[in-house]
Each structure stands twice: as C-alpha cells, then as structure tokens.
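Data card: per-record layout.
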Amino acid sequence: MSPEIVIPSLGIMTGIIVPLAVFVWLYLESKDKNKTILEISKNIDDPSKLEDLVGLLDERKKQPIDYRRSGVVTLFVGIGLFLFGVFFLGNILKGVGALVGTIGIGQIIAGYLYPNTSEELTSAVEDFEKK
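The structure for this 131-residue chain is written out next.
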C-alpha cells in the first residue's frame, strides 16, 4: 500500500477506534465494580451498611457545580485566546476569545445570583426572612 492511502486511513480509523475503546473501557470498569458490589451485598445482612457501601463506591460528585470557579477559569481561557489572537492569529481568534471571556463573566455573575451551597442558601434565606 502506498503512504497516500495508509496515512489518511489510519487517521480516519483513529477517530473511530479511540471513542469505541473509551466506551469499552468504561463499560468494563463499571461491570467489575457492579460485580464487586453484588458479591459484597450477598454477605451483608444490614441494609444500612449496604447503603454506606454503595455510597463509598459511588464516584459522582455530591456537591453542586460552583459557577464562580468555572466562570473564572472560562474567563481566563477567553483572555488567553484573545491575547493569542492579538499577537499571532488575528481578528477571528480575538472574537473567539472575547466570546469565551464574556461567557466566563456570565458564569461568574450567575454564581453570585444563584447560590448553590447549603451555607449560601441558608444565609440567603435568613437574609430574606430579616426583610
């Protein structure tokens, strides 16, 4: 086979193989975890201990998203893109950087308008009740 055919073919196959490999890997990882929970649950008689075990193995985040933190990160990514456009690539990247930076500012404002942690919600309710 000539390199004119092999290299584009490998590029196309990589775009298909990588996502499929990730899905298979995540499936196999969760399958083993579920088997482990099933085996342990057969030996546990107390339902509260079983709930604690499932809670320990659960990897999902328990806390809500902090929009202020993600907004700051997004804002600085936008600033970086804007500066990259100023110094290297031109107007298009300046516009993209300004857009991303504006989205970051919006996330920061949303983080202050909509409190999401329990302490912030409690203080917001107490402030409202004082009025």
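Known properties of this structure: Residues 67-130 form one domain. The first helix runs from residue 3 to 43.

See the next section for split statistics.
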